Amino acid sequence: ITTSIKFSKSNNQRVEKIIDVSSTDVKLNWNYFCVSNDEIEESKKIVDEFHAFLQKNIVDSIYLHAVDLEEGDGVFWWDNTVLHGRNSFEAYKTNDRFLWKSGIKLK
């Protein structure tokens, strides 16, 4: 999907392709719920079609790998190289869902 899509969350906005292929790598940028409300209709159609494709072909398929985490567990991944998500849940306390975003510089 080579069309640039406008994503927004809080006061931050960015315009990126959902799948960006270069000569050296592939970058993924996907959050269905962060597509900007003022995106043009043509782009919204692309977004809806890609979302429907994922729901039909990836969710609940052999291509989805669920990872059950216990308290204290952690997972590291390169954000733009892994298509990832989470199941919904209800948080009852402030720290029921805690994401500690950090970076690791590899030399």
Description:
The protein has one helix at 41-57; strands at 4-9, 12-17, 19-21, 26-28. 16% of the residues lie in helices and 17% in strands. Strands 1-2 form a two-stranded antiparallel ribbon. A two-stranded antiparallel sheet has the order 3-4. It starts with a strand and ends in a 50-residue tail after the last helix. The relative contact order is 0.13. A hairpin with a 2-residue loop joins strand 1 (4-9) and strand 2 (12-17). It is of the alpha+beta class. It is built from one helix and four strands; from the N terminus they run E-E-E-E-H.
Features:
single chain; two-stranded antiparallel ribbon; 17% strand; 16% helix; 107 residues
List the helices and strands and how they pair.
Layout: E1 4-9, E2 12-17, E3 19-21, E4 26-28, H1 41-57
Antiparallel strand pairs: 1-2, 3-4
**Order of strands across the main sheet:** 1-2
Shape: globular
Kindly name the structural category.
alpha+beta
- How many helices in DSSP terms? 1
- Average pLDDT over all residues: 87
* Low-pLDDT runs: none
Beta-strand percent range: 15-25%
Q: How much helical structure, as a percent, in the residues?
A: 10-25%
Could you tell me the number of beta strands? 4
Largest sheet: 2 strands, antiparallel
Distance between the termini: 31 Å
Q: Any idea what the radius of gyration is?
A: 16 Å
Order of helices and strands: EEEEH
